[in-house]
Amino acid sequence: MPGKNRDSKQWDRQIEQPQEEELRLQKRHAEHGAWLFLLAVLLLVAGIRYHLLNVPMERDEGEYAYGAQLMLQGLLPYEHLYSMKLPGIYGAYALVLSIFGQTHTGVHAGLLLINAITSILIFLLARRLINPLTGLAAAGSFAVLSVSPSVQGVFANAEHFVIVPAVAGFLILLIALEKRRWWLFFAAGLLLGLGFVIKQHGFAFILAGIVIFFTQYPGGRPFSWKPLGWHALALCSGILLPYAVVCIIFLASGSFAQFWFWTFKYPRAYISELSFKDGLYNFLNNFGLILRDSWPLWFLAYIGLRPPIWNKDERKSRTLLLILSLFSALRRISWKDVAVMGNLA
Length: 345
Description:
Protein name: Glycosyltransferase RgtA/B/C/D-like domain-containing protein
Keywords: Cell membrane, Glycosyltransferase, Membrane, Transferase, Transmembrane, Transmembrane helix
Mean pLDDT: 82
Organism: Chlorobaculum tepidum (strain ATCC 49652 / DSM 12025 / NBRC 103806 / TLS)
GO molecular function: pentosyltransferase activity
Membrane topology: Multi-pass membrane protein
């Protein structure tokens, strides 16, 4: 009998091994297929954006390009340019102009590249959260929706630059929660903080990152507070570092007073003119316009959300999706109507 049991187990292993190998091959093929399909979508969107390279600059693009030119000449903002935006957007534009040229087509060529990078990051994030097919759907939908005139997708507004480090920060944060390495938490915080110094509305993504950290941090038995504390410190240090560097630069240049006035005092007075209620109303109105122009994709997104919301096995993905959706909506209200940032300030 013992010999028969050993033979039976060996036979079972021989059957399971080909099945496992077949599953691995199927996953690999699905992964390759998702990447190829994503590449096709990105090429399609890039083709559309290529034909829009010569579109004249929008108001904000002109401001950012002018600030970038000043930086390339060695001049800091807020001395020769008065704006509520934090200086990160001018630095991002300076990088784009130095690579693609100081023209409106150069700005839009940079946007084409930024949009493609963001789409790939969204694919990687959604793939880690759920699976490659979901990543493909998320990245493809973003690439298509981000060209829509209803979100001013043709123009290189600051939002395009904010979400690159934000999405990258979320991706690294998920990896950090799995690997539990302090430098990964620091890198995630650094990227989220970088999004904030590009535009203040990136603060919503910082809040999302902090909520994700404390709700998804892996527990153990017995639970130890020491790793949690060190990892939280690494995350927060990364978040604060970009803004601290900006403050040090302006302190050293002797223009911190101008920087503080234009990026904190003036915006605080400006946004206090609009209440949260009015901001929420405007958000719903603007979202209705966006929904009207691309309702089929939103309907498909709703269908795709049902499994992770109702499936108990997808509880972790459900929580993360809800957090990201909530704080993305918060950022959307603050972007279009600047009401939330007023209440926060």
